[in-house]
Amino acid sequence: MDRKQRAELVRHFTNAIPYSRALDMRLDELGDGDAVISMPYDSRFVGDPDTGVIHGGAVSALMDTTGGAAVMSHPDAPVVTATLDLRIDYMRAAVPGQRIVCRAECYHVTRSVAFIRAVAHDDDSENPIATANGAFTADSGKITKRSAGAPA
Amino acid sequence: MKRPEPVQVVKERRDSALAALVERVPYIGFLGVHFDRRGDELTAVLPFSDTLVGNPALPAIHGGVTASFLEITSIIELGWMLMWEEIEGGGLSAADISAETMPRLPKTIDFTVDYLRSGLPRDAYARARVNRSGRRYASVHVEAWQDNRSRMFAQATGHFLMPPPRDG
To answer: How far does A24 lie from chain B, in Å, by closest CA?
Structure first.
C-alpha cells in the first residue's frame, strides 16, 4: 500500500467514525504518523455548567481519535488499531466558544504496539489545554520487514 | 427520642439532589448517561446507541465514549459525595436544592484509561470509588463492565481538584 492509498484509507475511516461525527470532528491534517483533528465548541458538550467549559470526556474523545488516526497513518502500523491505554493531563480549561485542535504524533511502532503523544489547544496555540500519552494496538497479523526482530 | 424521617421524604430528597447534580451537565445528557442509586451507592448506566460507535466494522464503542463515561462517573461520584454531606448533614432540604446552593463540580487534573477489551454494542455500567479525598485533591478509581460485573471492559484512575466551598 503506497502513501497516498494509506492516507485515503485513514481519511475515509476517520470521517466515518459515528462518535467522531456526533462530536462534529474534522480531520485537518494527515501525515506519515501524525494527524490534526479539531472539534467545534458546542453547548451540548459542556461539562461545567458554572463556567461553560467543555467536558474533559469530549476532549478525551478528540485526543483518542487523533491518536488513532496518527497510528493508522504511520507507514509501519496496520490501518486497524484500538486504544490500549490513554493518559490525559489537563493543563487549563478550554476557553468557551473556541474550537479545540488536537495534534497527535505516533512516535514509535513495534510489531504489536504503537505509542502516541498528543497536544490539544484552543485559539491560544502556545498554551496547551491538555496533553496525552497513549499506547495503541498495532497487530497486523504478519511481521513486516521493518519491525522484524524488533522488541515487543 | 426523635422519630426517624418518613422514607418517602428521605428518598425524595436524595433523588432530587442526584437529579439536580446530573441534569446540570449537558454532556451527560448528550452521551445519554443516567445514574441508579441505592442509598449512597451510584451506578452509572450508558445505554448503547449507534452514535457511540468508534469502529463500525466490529462494531465497538468509541474509546472516547468509554473515557467520557468513566470520567463522568468519577466526577458525579465526587460531586455526589459533597452533595450527600450537604443534604444528609441537615443543611439542604429537597426544596432548597438549586444551581446556587449545589456544590461546584471537581475539575480533572489527569485521567488514565486502561482499555481491557472492546466495548460491545450493548449497555455499559460503571462504579467509581473515591480512594482519597482531601480538601484540595481527590484520587478516584472507576470500573466499567457490560454483561458480567467481574469482566471489566475498561478501568481508569484520575486525580481531581476539589471545588472551594460555595460560601467563600
So the answer is: 12
Closest chain B CA to residue A60? B64
- Could you tell me the domains of chain A? 3-137 (3.10.129.10)
Chain A residues within an 8 Å CB radius of B53: 17-19
**Gap from A146 CA to chain B (nearest CA, Å):** 27
B44 falls within a domain: yes
* pLDDT tens readout for residues A53-94: 999 999 999 999 999 999 999 999 888 899 999 999 999 999
Quote the CA–CA distance of A147 and B103 in Å, as a whole number: 53
B115 contacts in chain A (CB < 8 Å): 82-86
- Closest-CA residue in chain A for B79? A48
pLDDT tens for each residue of B102-143: 889 999 999 999 999 999 999 999 999 999 999 999 999 999
B28: domain CATH number is 3.10.129.10
Cβ–Cβ < 8 Å for A77, A138? yes
The closest alpha carbon to A75, from A19, A27, A135, A34, belongs to A34
B49 inside domain: yes
Interface pTM (ipTM) of the complex? 0.93
Contact B27 A82 (CB under 8 A): no
Note down the domain range covering B92.
7-161
Print burial letters for B136-163: b (CB count within 10 Å at least 16), e (below 16).
eebbbebbbbbeeeeebbbbbbbbbebb
Element (H, E) at B10: helix B7-23
The verdict on residue B2 lying in a domain is no
CB atoms closer than 10 angstroms to residue B54: 25
Total domain count, chain B: 1
Distance to chain A for B101, nearest Cα, Å: 12
Chain A environment of B105 (Cβ under 8 Å):
47-48, 50
